[in-house]
Amino acid sequence: EPEVTQTPSHQVTQMGQEVILRCVPISNHLYFYWYRQILGQKVEFLVSFYNNEISEKSEIFDDQFSVERPDGSNFTLKIRSTKLEDSAMYFCASSGSGSGYTFGSGTRLTVV
Amino acid sequence: KQEVTQIPAALSVPEGENLVLNCSFTDSAIYNLQWFRQDPGKGLTSLLLIQSSQREQTSGRLNASLDKSSGRSTLYIAASQPGDSATYLCAVRHDQKVTFGTGTKLQVIP
After folding, report:
1. What is the pLDDT of residues A45-92, one digit of tens each?
2. CB of A101 less than 8 A from some CB of B
3. In the 8-state DSSP scheme, what is residue A84?
4. How confident is the model at residue B43, as a pLDDT?
5. Fewer Cβ atoms within 10 A, N terminus or C terminus of chain A?
6. CB distance from B101 to chain A under 8 Å?
7. Which helix (H) or strand (E) element contains residue B106?
8. Closest Cα to residue B105, out of A40, A87, A45?
9. What does the pLDDT look like over A3-53, one tens digit per residue?
10. What value does the mean pLDDT take over residues B7-29?
C-alpha cells in the first residue's frame, strides 16, 4: 500500500537554528499538508499546498514557517529560527481528489 | 470555525466487550470524515473513511457511521481486544484542511 514517507524520524536542534523536515507524499496525490501535535495535545493544521502554492494556512503558520515542493517528489517544511515551543511531532499528509488523508509516521522535533 | 469533539476522553473496557466512540462536529458542510488510530508516540493510522454522501463504512470489527445533518459520527468496535488499546481520533475534512478531535484514549483490559 502506498505510504507517505517522512525524514528524519527524530530531530534535535538548538533554539534559533533552522530545520527542514522532509516528506515524500504518495506519487499520484495532488494535495499536501503539514500538521503538528504538541505532546499531549490535539493534532493541529498548519498548511495545505496545491498546484505549487499554499491554498490555506493556520494562524500557527507564521513567517517563521515555509513550505516547498522543490522537485516532483519531495515536500518540505522549513522553520527558520526554531523556538522551544516548536517542539512537537510534525506530520506530513497527502490526499487525492475526494480521498481521505494518508499521513506519514511523523518527525519528532525537539528544540533545546 | 469547525470544532470537533470526542466523547469520552478516555475509556477502559474488559476484553471482548463491544464499544462505541463518539465524535461530533459543529459545521455539517464537510467533504468526509476519517477515523484514525494513534499509538503512543507514533503516527496516525487511517481506519475508516466516510464520504459526506455515505452513512457508514465497515472494516473487519470496525463500523463507522455518519449523520451529517446532526453533526455526529460513531465508531463501533466489536469484540474488543488488548491490541485495540490506543487513542482514536476522528477528523473532519472541510475546505482545504482537516480538523481533528481531541481523541478517545481506549484501554482494553485482558
Report:
1. 999 999 889 999 999 999 999 999 988 789 999 999 999 999 999 999
2. yes
3. G
4. 86
5. N
6. yes
7. strand B104-109
8. A40
9. 999 999 999 999 999 999 999 999 889 999 999 999 989 999 999 999 889
10. 95
Question: Which residue's entry shows cell 527524530?
Answer: A10
- Give contacts of A101 with chain B, Cβ < 8 Å: 34, 46, 91, 93, 98
Which residue in this structure is represented by grid cell 533554539?
A15
User: Cβ neighbours of residue B23 under 8 Å, at least 6 residues apart?
Assistant: B4, B5, B6, B33, B35, B72, B73, B74, B75, B90, B101
List, as one string, the DSSP characters of B52-90: TT-SEEEETTEEEEEETTTTEEEEEE-S--GGG-EEEEE
Neighbouring residues of B70: CB distance < 8 A, sequence distance ≥ 6? none
- Asked if B106 and B54 touch (Cβ cutoff 8 Å), the reply is no
Q: Judge: A45–B44 Cβ closer than 8 Å, yes or no.
A: no
* A101/B98 Cβ within 8 A: yes
